[in-house]
Amino acid sequence: MKVSAFIRKSAKKNDTDSQATIYFRLRDKGKDFKAASELTINPNHWSPEKQGYKDRVALISDEKKVGLSDEIRNIISLITKNYDEDANAEWLNEMLDRYHHPNNYKTEEEIAWESKPTFQQLLEEFILKHKLSEIRKKNFRVICRAMMRYELFVRATKRGQKVFMLDIDTVTADTLHDMWDFFENEHLYHAKYPEIYERIPEKRTPRPRSKNTLIDSFCRIRTFFLWCYEKKRTTNKPFDQFHIDECTYGTPVYITLQERDKLFDKDLSGYPQLEVQRDIFVFQSLIGCRIGDLYRMTKSNVVNGAIEYIPRKTKEGNPITVRVPLNDKAKTILEKYKHCESNRLLPFTSEQKYNDAIKKAFKLAEIDRIVTILDPLSNEELKKPLYEVASSHMARRTFIGNIYKKVKDPNLVGALSGHKEGSKAFSRYREIDEDMKKELVSLLD
User: Fold this and answer.
1) Is this model's pTM higher than 0.70 or not?
2) How buried is 114 (Cβ within 10 angstroms: 0-12 exposed, 13-18 middle, 19+ buried)?
3) Burial of 420 (0-12, 13-18, 19+ CB in 10 A)
4) Nearest-5° angle of CA 196, CA 199, CA 203?
5) Are residues 129 and 147 in the same domain?
6) Which residue has the higher pLDDT, 136 or 337?
7) Residue 5, strand partner residues
8) Is residue 64 situated within a structural domain?
9) Between the CA of residue 75 and those of 23, 78, 81, 98, what are the distances in Å?
10) Which residue range(s) make up the domain with 94?
11) What are the E-state strand segments in 12-130?
């Protein structure tokens, strides 16, 4: 079987405007079929031997010459590849039409596959359409970038995966295990594969991720897959075979009321910036809000002697208004900074500078009681002085822990802290302290 290209039209020697249709001829054991293509060429430029442009044709770019040669070669290849003994003239015409108008011959499945959104497009659609707070949208985008880096990592390191892409329909439990391994060790790959991080960068150099961080990331990925399943964007449920452990937390560490007062009474006039952030920490420990909610507060959040706010964490789901009456210490702090600019409640700085200042203020106030914490990376116990583990969240824990010691009513404390009833997070704060243990043991006297 032989397939060749030819033209039927000729032109005068200096005619460079005429165009001739390029035909294709199929010959095989008594068969001789011809069919017209949609390709054209000036007859004076045609080379029967080359089945394309002559070598020396003025005013025709090399790109155009190569393009026509590729088209002719592709058509011959298509005919040769699909040829069988039943082929006839009608079949040859159809082959040429298929080449020039491939969309006319695609099945519904092929059309659906080609119009299918990419994994990244689906994830972006989920972020836009699913009810998420701005901070959660930001967290999902961080995970999305890590997943796109995983794609590049697979292409760079695994044989036969040069064009690997995540596909919502083909991700398996094995894929998730491999992705977990990448997430866990990404800090090691940064120096080894810098081109990955040039294409999809982060503001911070990747650092080791704790198991809790990995669990949180994969719980979010699972939420995305469930959304895709519910919206009939896939029938794939890889998390049915991929187990995610519960997060492990140590006992929440907080300071006593005596330690809080020691911190508040410490003379920090020689460190004016530290004094401001120390005061903000004490204020936060008196109203118990999360740092994100604190930083959004303005003077309008003070209503009839109390702080009123809707916690951002519950705002998208079942919003509740939290009202925390202000005690004398809290009122003193607000009075001290009543002229704070831009209507902000207090003179806030960045969260990182706030956390750094808290540690320094604790150390200057000699809040150095040794506490036991759980190392997030090794999951081992560590002994550290309080000033090394102090942070903005310790203010919230201080509020919750000390009130619970007084009233021992989780629902009442939850009403002040903004926790939902039955919250797993709130249960971690209900550590029975030494005084409560003594009270219980005294019942046996």
Assistant:
1) no
2) exposed
3) middle
4) 90
5) yes
6) 337
7) 24
8) yes
9) 11, 5, 10, 10
10) 2-113
11) 20-28, 31-41, 46-47, 52-53
